[in-house]
Amino acid sequence: MDFLLIGFAFLCGLVIKLVGFPPLLGYLLAGFLLHFLGVTPDDSLTTLADLGITLMLFTVGLKLNIRDLAKREVWAGSMSHMGIWTPVLIAVLSVIAVPFALGLDPASTALLAFALSFSSTVCIVKLLEESGEMRTRHGKLAIGVLVMQDIIAVLFLALATGKVPSLWAVGLLALPLIRPVLDVILAKAGHGELLPLAGFFLALGGYELFDLVHIKGDLGALVIGILLSSSKKATELSKALLSFKDIFLIGFFLSIGFTALPTWNMVGIALALTVLLPVKFLLFYSLFLAMKLRGRTAYLSALALANYSEFGLIVAALSVDAGWLAAEWLVILALSVSFSFIVTSVLYRNAHAVYSRYKTSLTRFERPERLSEDILEQPRDAEILVVGLGRVGKGAYVALYNLVGHRVWGMDADPVRIDRMTEHGYKAFVGDGEDADLWENLVLSTVKLVLLALPSIEDISHITTQLKHAGYSGQIAAIARYEDERQALIGRGIDKVFNFFTEAGTGFAEESLQMIDRAAR
């Protein structure tokens, strides 16, 4: 049985990837096809899915700055959207229910509208991670909204299940006091297999701790992750857990297909709900613009959030068990969630290209005022610009700084990285390389060389296109992990592409030879 699930998921994921779509769509398809063929999974699939969600929320916490949740656009945006969307959807569901003879009462209609007001944490986090946008302005905004929605979900589940947090839950307020202990645990774990094992221990420990005091366990994993977000090992731990999380989440996507077999009537209702996704997008987009966000940030965040959440399935299951909803709504919501995943996954892949093409329309309703985070700093007198200040980018920047001083500048979408660079006296500023507006407003007249130190060749290609559209005529260099990626980037017009592993070996050899030369003298 396990081999059948894994093999079918792999084949469907591979086929979908070969035709140019994200593999997660293949996993969704695999679940529905296996269910149609009469396959019945055992409890291990649910365990796998739950573990994937717990690890995902833990890694989200590792990348989350708690101060981001206090921003007006995060808490006000999420609350306002839910407050407007829910009554709108109540009206729509009341209309849909008539032709399909669903016989929804007002309470059931309100419950469904509330369930569909949430956005999918699993889908959004996976998209942002695959595109390397978790720490961008729009990525952090989307994640902040999801966290606020999770808090609301916890409150709802407490009321719906009657599980009121115990008095011992007050003790959770003391969790920040154990942060130094957690830092020591991670430091002692080293860099081998103990590090991901420590991640499992902390994520599941947070889950069990919160569950023990009758609070949704997933929130505990998120909180423990947030406590560790300032740790020096946070990034390394997140990368160590990445493959585990992705594998376990396949179980989640498969499990959606095993919810129940739909009828054509159910498919029709689910498609009608999917057609409402543009309304959800427009509402998020309008609210973000009203809060003085740039058109690009509002557009990308709203596009990522325009889907239905797996939380809707939890609400539906609880409601069916309590007799508040008819059982067919569990199937309808499963289909709606699946369809929304497909829509978001397909549209977001081309989001930056669409913005570049229609940015005049998308920025038409921007507020004239700018938030402090959206004010662009100019790299004055820069001759070299390093885009991406991760381990490779920072290493390249420091090496260049030692040669040319302040004639080299760095740029990264993560403000934390920029703060660390400027603390050491380096010249760096916050900027998202895929932002077409940024390159058009950036003064590049003195820049002779742009180094693209980014992990995604799609991002590198897109930035190269943006640079050329902005009139940049200097040299462009980039890094690639594999030879086929290097050749692809050269074919897209980049002047010089370095193979990461080859150049590391070359540098190692050259430095070693210099040691011999110095010793001989």
UniProtKB/TrEMBL annotation:
Show the InterPro entries listed in the entry: Cation/H_exchanger_TM (IPR006153), Na+/solute_symporter_sf (IPR038770), NAD(P)-bd_dom_sf (IPR036291), RCK_N (IPR003148)
Compartments, record wording: Membrane
- Annotated membrane-spanning segments are 44-62, 83-104, 110-129, 141-160, 247-264, 270-291, 298-320, 326-348
Annotated membrane topology:
Multi-pass membrane protein
Q: Residue ranges of the Cation/H+ exchanger transmembrane domain? A: 8-345
Q: Name one GO cellular component term.
A: membrane
Could you name the domain of life of the organism this protein comes from?
Answer: Bacteria
Entry keyword annotation includes Ribonucleoprotein: no
Q: GO molecular function, one example?
A: antiporter activity
Q: Where is the RCK N-terminal domain?
A: 384-499
- Provide one Gene Ontology biological process annotation: potassium ion transport
Annotated keywords: Antiport, Ion transport, Membrane, Transmembrane, Transmembrane helix, Transport
Q: What family does this chain come from, according to its entry? A: Belongs to the monovalent cation:proton antiporter 2 (CPA2) transporter (TC 2.A.37) family.
Spell out the protein name for this chain.
Answer: Potassium transporter Kef
